[in-house]
Amino acid sequence: MSKIAKLFKGSSSSSSSSSSRSKHHRSRGGPSPQEAIHKLRETEEMLTKKQDYLEKRIEQELMIAKKNGTKNKRAALQALKRKKRLEQQLTQIDGTLSTIEFQREALENSHTNTEVLKNMGFAAKAMKQVHENMDVDKIDDLMQDITEQQDVAQEISEAISRPFGETFDEDELLAELAELEQEELEESMKSMGGLPSVPSSKLPTARPSQRASKYNIAQAYNSK
């Protein structure tokens, strides 16, 4: 054998061994949850199609048995036997579908829980990284400083808004204001000419004849 042939033979054997190792590695690792769920769905579809086929075959065998019930008893019995076998297969497929469906749902739930836990772990790592640069003691000191500065700001605001100068009695100021109003009222009355004066002459008295006539009228009214 030539050196070139040996070389190609060695390369082919090494490539085949590497490919076998890769296949062994993949088989040992196992399929992913998505691949397994996809395979289970394909199996469900295949079995569902098989169910439809068996149901149609059962109907056909039943029609054959009815058709040959009185004419050809042997053919009718053969059709009923085939119908029974098909019904058994259909029952087995129903059980298999239930098992596959249960397995697929369990796998989907496990995959969902795995993804949730993975995301929660990722969020926990991010939170830990954020809190690494935080010191609880420093935070307490910072909050205490903020509280103290707020108290100082409040004191400054109260000092600025406090009025300057002496404080006066409010009752005295109101009394003085009332006096000023009274003086202003008197000045306005004087400017208008003051109050009307009382007449000095006496009012005229009634005459004697008028008084007598009034008396007579009153007596006549009382006698009635």
Automatic annotation (TrEMBL):
Coiled coil recorded as keyword: yes
UniProt keywords, alphabetically: Coiled coil, Cytoplasm, Endosome, Membrane, Protein transport, Transport
InterPro entries referenced in this protein's UniProt entry, alphabetically: Snf7_fam
A cellular component term, taken from the record's GO annotations: multivesicular body
Places the protein is found: Cytoplasm, Cytosol; Late endosome membrane
Pfam family, one: Snf7
Disordered: annotated segments: 1-43, 183-224
Chief localization: cytoplasm
Topological relation to the membrane, as annotated: Peripheral membrane protein
Biased amino acid composition, Low complexity: 9-20
Residue ranges with Polar residues bias: 198-213
Example GO BP: cilium assembly
Family annotation (PANTHER family): CHARGED MULTIVESICULAR BODY PROTEIN, CHARGED MULTIVESICULAR BODY PROTEIN 4C
Family: Belongs to the SNF7 family.
UniProt-recorded name of the protein: Charged multivesicular body protein 4C
Gene source species: Seriola lalandi dorsalis
Origin organism lineage: Eukaryota, Metazoa, Chordata, Craniata, Vertebrata
